[in-house]
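Whether sequence alone determines local backbone shape is best considered at the level of individual chains. In the encoding step, the backbone of a single protein was reduced to a row of integers, each denoting a local shape. For completeness, the protein is quoted in full, as a sequence line and a line of structure tokens.
***
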Amino acid sequence: MNNEGDGGDDAGMKLAVFDCDGTLVDGQAPICEAMENAFAVFGLVAPPRALIRRAVGLSLPQAMRQLLPHSVRDQQLALAEAYREAFRAARIDGRVSQPLFEGMADTLRALAQAGWTLGVATGMSDRGLEHCLAANGVSDLFVTLQTADRHPSKPHPAMLEAALADAGAGPEQAVMIGDTQYDMAMARAIGVRAIGVDWGYHHPAELRDAGAERVVGTPQELTQALLG
């Protein structure tokens, strides 16, 4: 997908980078179940689901460090691999549901039709993200996909910097849309606008405190915020 008039400094470039889980799709149930299974592998009691949901958006090792604060690096990596295996098994068994939030497909297509370039920056793996987007029929809408497989965990800005480079956009031409304070902090670190969504994992007040210029309540409101 190429924007009309791409090339050169492209003053008309507009790039919208989305977080995935909690922003584009609702995948909290399979995430919590896979995390509980991963902890069970090592005979550990899994954290409450409220705490698991708050770790969504981080890369897996960092999420494990947050969920098990006194663990060592090797234990965090082992738990992360157990989580991957549990999630992979659930997907093979057909137990993973990651539907787009209602109205999100319309928002994505409206932005694409209006000439926006779209991307994703997520703590998911390459394989997980590709499967998720394909299952929801929206893979063709995105020109840049950045994951935890190739970058440090949010809020480090590496994912967003790579998305800007892929799209040929400057920070002033982009907006980051996400549901966690990690998304907001990542954007603000490199001067990208940040818009929070209130249907995900962190409270609107946390999003504002982390740098969101506004928090929207529905995909329709997000469309209006971006298209005017």
User: Anything to note?
Assistant: The CA atoms of residues 103 and 195 lie 17 Å apart. The radius of gyration is 17 Å.
